[in-house]
Amino acid sequence: MIGASSDLSSLRGRLVAVMDRHDYAAELIPISRSEATVAGRPAYKSITEAPGEVDMAIVIVPAPHVPAVLADCAAKGVKAAQIISSGFAEESGAAGRDLQAEIAAIAAASDLRIGSRDLKVGAPIARTLGNCLAIGNLARFVRLVGEARTKYMLLTASLIDAEEAASSGFISELLEDRDAVLARADEMARGITDLAPLTLDATMRGLQRLRDTVPLPDDHDLVKQCFGSADFKEGVSAFFEKRKPDWKGA
Prior knowledge:
CATH class: Alpha Beta
Shape: globular
Number of strands: 8
CATH superfamily: NAD(P)-binding Rossmann-like Domain
Distance between the termini: 33 Å
Low-confidence stretches: none
CATH architecture: 3-Layer(aba) Sandwich
Mean pLDDT: 87
Number of helices: 10
Helix content: 40-55%
Strand order of the largest sheet: 1-2
Largest sheet: 2 strands, antiparallel
CATH topology: Rossmann fold
Order of helices and strands: HEEEHEHEEHHEHEHHHH
């Protein structure tokens, strides 16, 4: 649980308590930047520090921080994530829609991608929060849609629509609506379980080895430049205050 807390007056704390009270069968690993332990369990500052494989992430953090958390989930190889947060398109207008598009872009880390006709994809962070993509996510973008289209999306803070996402290969199938996407995802998952598991495993591990052939360069200085800046703090404040950020380049 990312954003877990020992504070029972908060939703983050109550969810932990409910899971304990009802003997939640799976291992619960709390992720907290402010607490060393949560409900008697050691807490980790990032999902990337959690031990072993993670099947499911429950994300309970403020909306501006969700994309970075999901990027960490992708880096960890988390199989699924559930977001419990507000401040997206349902109440934050264009800024919220931009965050949703950035979340869709992080789905690039998944192995198979399908979408509906209302899909928008991009990472308009130069307009919203003033942060940056980790170099691993940048590499995924380039691998999927090419360097030129990646530059266009990031340097103009633009979104691509469902048709362009399909034509570029970002998604493999374009369906009419959300219900059709969910039905097709279930159909695909069931179909995959009928296939030869060793072939699937060898395919996925072989593709991973191809990606690992060229190691990624270090990007700590770039991440520190953006996430440690006054501009990033301004971007987060502007998001919550529903105003345009005043960038200073510092």
